[in-house]
Design the sequence.
C-alpha cells in the first residue's frame, strides 16, 4: 500500500541500470515522512545493498548506508538508517517538519547469491509454475510489497491456508457448504441460439457453452472465495470481516457468508460505485453489514481496496480481509485463485460428460481477474486449450478512458503486488473507466501478468458499447441477463467466432447475473 505525495519519487539503480518505482514510497506521518525502499529481486537475492540517498528538501541532506539482509524471504527490513543501518531511510533527522517537495534518488550496488525463482516458461517446469515461488511471485510479478506491520499477518494467513488445504475436515465442510448453500456445481449450458447466431452462411461455426456462475447463491462466482475465506477466518479466530467491492457482487457475497457464520462485516465501496449499484448496496445492508462509502481518489474499486487495507493495518488482531480478486500481496492471488479453481475443475468434468473431451477455447472477462483465473487454472498445462481474457476498453483504447490494464499498462506496484498497471509517465495511477463497476480497476492479478508475458494466455478488450450490445443479445437469444462484466467476454465472440473451425467448443464464464446492472443499462439502451 502506498500513500503518495505529488513530486516525490524514488529511483533505484541495480547493477548500473536505473529502475523507477514511485509506488514504493510510503508516508507514515505528515510531519516526519519515512520512506520504505523495497527492491524487487528477480532470480537472485542480494546479501548486501549499498545505498547513497540524496534528498532535495528545504534543508538538503545526504546520507550513505550499507544494508545487510539476513532473511532471504524478505526484500526489506525496517528502522531508521541513522540509528541502525537498515531500511527505511528516516529523514526526520534532516528535514524536521518539512516534507519533501522534489525528487530524490537512490543508487544501489548489490552483491548477489542465487535463489530459486519461478520458471519463465511452461517448458522449463510444466507443473511447478502453476503456483508462485517461495517469495510469492509468478516470474517477476506478485510478491509482498507491504508495510512491515502486515508481514506477520500475511505469513500467518499463508501458513493457515496451506495447513487447511490438507485438512480433510475443513475440505469436507467447505465442499458441503458449496453444494448445499452455494448450489454447486453450476451448469455448463449449451447456448444453442447464441451458437446458431454465430454460424457462417455455410452452416458452420463454434459450439458455445456458458459456465453458469450466475446461478450460484448471491448471483456470481464471488461466493466461492467468500465462503472459503470466511471458514478460514473462523479457524484463525477472527470475529470481524472487511472487504472491498466494485460492482457490489463481492460485497453481497461477503455480507452473505458473514450472516451465515455470525461475523461482523464491513464493506468498503467507492461512492461512485454506490451510485451505479444501489440494489447491491441495499442488499448488503439488508444482510446486516455496514457499507462504508469511499470518497477519496476516483471513488471506485481501487480506492475501496486502499481503504480496506488501511483498516486491516490498524485492526490486525481481530480482523480478516476477504480480498475479492486474485490481486494484492501474497498469499491472496494464490489463495483466491485456488478457492475459485472449482470453476475450471467442474468445467473439465462437465465437458468430458457432454462431448467426451476438453474445451478448445475458454473466454472470461478480466478486471482483477478472479473469475478468469478460476476457469483458466485447471487448464494452464493443457497447451491445446486456448485461454482468452477480455478487458474493458471503455470509450476506446485511444481515448484514455478505459480499464485495459494488460493491453495498455506498464509494470508497477499497487496494493502490495507487482503487476501491470495503468499509470502515467511519472508512475501515477491513471483513472480507469468502464461501464462495468467490476472491471473499473487500474491493475490486474499478477498471475494474469505472468500468463501474458509467457504467452500462455491472450488478452483482448471490448468497448462499453460492444458490451451493452452483448448484454442485449444474450438476453434476447437465450433469456439470460448477463452481468456487464460477463457481457465483455460475450462481446468478444463477435471477433472470435468467425475465426474458429466448425464445431470448436467454446466455454464462456458467465461470471454473474445482470439484475444489478439493469438501471445502468436503461440509461444507455433503447429497447
Sequence:
Amino acid at each position: 500500500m502506498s500513500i503518495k505525495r505529488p513530486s516525490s519519487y524514488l529511483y533505484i539503480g541495480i547493477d548500473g541500470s536505473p529502475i523507477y518505482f514511485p509506488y514504493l514510497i510510503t508516508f507514515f506521518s505528515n510531519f516526519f515522512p519515512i520512506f520504505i525502499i523495497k527492491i524487487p529481486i528477480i532470480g537472485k537475492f542480494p546479501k548486501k545493498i549499498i545505498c547513497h540517498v540524496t534528498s532535495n528538501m528545504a534543508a538538503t541532506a545526504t546520507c550513505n548506508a550499507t544494508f545487510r539482509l539476513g532473511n532471504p524471504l524478505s526484500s526489506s527490513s525496517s528502522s531508521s538508517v541513522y540509528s541502525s543501518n537498515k531500511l527505511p531511510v528516516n529523514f526526520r533527522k534532516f528535514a524536521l517538519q518539512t516534507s519533501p517537495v522534489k525528487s530524490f534518488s537512490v543508487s544501489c550496488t548489490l552483491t548477489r547469491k542465487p535463489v530459486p525463482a519461478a520458471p519463465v516458461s511452461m517448458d522449463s517446469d510444466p507443473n511447478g509454475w502453476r503456483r508462485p515461488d517461495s517469495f510469492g511471485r509468478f516470474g517477476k510479478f506478485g510478491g509482498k510489497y507491504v508495510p512491515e506491520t502486515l508481514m506477520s499477518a500475511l505469513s500467518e494467513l499463508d501458513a493457515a491456508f496451506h495447513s487447511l488445504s490438507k485438512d480433510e475436515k475443513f475440505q469436507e465442510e467447505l465442499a458441503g457448504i458449496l453444494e448445499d448453500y452455494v448450489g454447486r456445481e453450476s451448469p455448463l449450458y449449451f447456448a444453442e441460439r447464441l451458437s446458431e447466431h454465430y454460424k457462417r452462411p455455410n452452416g458452420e461455426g463454434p459450439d458455445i457453452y456458458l459456465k453458469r456462475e450466475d446461478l450460484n447463491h448471491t448471483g456470481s462466482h464471488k461466493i466461492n472465495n467468500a465462503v472459503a475465506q470466511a471458514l478460514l477466518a473462523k479457524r484463525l479466530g477472527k470475529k470481524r470481516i472487511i472487504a472491498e467491492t466494485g460492482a457490489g457482487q463481492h460485497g453481497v457475497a461477503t455480507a452473505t457468508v458473514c450472516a451465515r457464520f455470525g461475523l461482523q462485516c464491513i464493506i468498503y465501496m467507492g461512492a461512485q460505485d454506490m451510485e451505479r449499484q444501489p440494489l447491491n448496496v441495499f442488499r448488503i445492508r439488508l444482510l446486516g453489514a455496514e457499507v462504508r462509502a469511499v470518497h477519496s481518489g476516483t471513488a471506485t474499486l481501487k480506492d475501496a481496496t486502499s481503504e480496506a487495507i488501511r483498516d486491516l493495518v490498524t485492526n490486525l488482531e481481530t480482523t480478516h480481509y476477504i480480498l475479492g480478486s486474485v490481486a494484492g500481496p501474497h498469499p491472496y492471488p494464490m489463495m483466491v485463485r485456488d478457492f475459485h479453481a472449482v470453476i475450471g475443475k467442474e468445467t473439465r468434468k462437465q465437458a468430458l460428460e457432454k462431448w467426451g473431451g476438453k474445451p478448445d477455447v475458454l473466454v472470461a472477462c478480466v478486471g482483477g481477474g478472479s473469475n478468469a483465473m478460476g476457469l483458466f487454472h485447471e487448464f494452464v498445462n493443457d497447451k491445446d486449450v486456448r485461454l482468452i481474457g477480455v478487458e474493458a476498453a471503455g470509450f476506446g483504447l485511444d481515448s484514455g478512458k478505459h480499464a485495459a490494464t494488460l493491453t495498455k499498462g506498464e509494470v508497477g506496484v499497487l496494493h502490495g503486488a507487482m503487476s501491470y498497471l495503468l499509470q502515467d509517465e511519472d508512475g501515477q495511477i491513471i483513472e480507469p473507466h468502464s461501464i462495468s463497476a467490476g472491471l473499473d480497476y487500474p491493475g490486474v492479478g499478477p498471475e494474469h501478468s505472468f500468463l501474458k508475458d509467457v504467452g500462455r494466455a491472450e488478452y483482448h478488450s471490448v468497448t462499453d458499447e460492444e458490451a451493452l450490445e452483448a448484454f442485449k443479445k444474450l438476453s434476447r437469444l437465450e433469456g439470460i441477463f448477463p452481468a456487464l462484466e460477463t457481457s465483455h467476454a460475450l462481446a468478444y465472440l463477435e471477433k472470435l467466432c468467425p475465426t474458429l473451425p466448425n464445431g470448436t467448443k467454446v466455454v464462456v464464464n458467465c461470471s454473474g447475473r445482470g439484475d444489478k446492472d439493469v438501471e445502468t443499462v436503461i440509461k444507455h439502451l433503447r429497447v
In short: Residues 1-120 have pLDDT under 50 and may be disordered. The longest strand covers residues 44-55.
